[in-house]
Design goal:
Layout lengths: L8 H9 L4 E5 L2 E8 L2 E5 L4 E4 L1 H7 L6 E2 L9 H9 L4
Antiparallel strand pairs: 1-2, 1-5, 2-3, 3-4
Length: about 90
Amino acid sequence: MMENEFLDINQALIKLKNKKIVFCYVNNIKVFFVKKKTNIYVINNGSSFYLKDNDFLEIYKNNKFMEYDDEISEYDFSRDDEYYGWKHK
C-alpha cells in the first residue's frame, strides 16, 4: 500500500475481512479497527469495544482510513485476546 493512501469505509471493511488492521482519526484520536470473528474490535488509548459490521459502516461511514503496518505496532492486540478470553469459573 502506498504511504498516505486513504481508504473509504467499504475498502476499510474489505481490509478488515482480509485480516488487516486499519485506523482513522476521530476528534484527533487515533482509533484502530481489527476484525475478530464476526465483529470488529474498536480500540484507542481510552476505550475498546466490539461492533457488528453494519454498525461499523453506519458510525464510521464518513471517515477516511489507512491500513496499519503491524510490523511497527504501537499496540499489542494479543494482550486483549488474553484478557477477553478469560472466563469466570
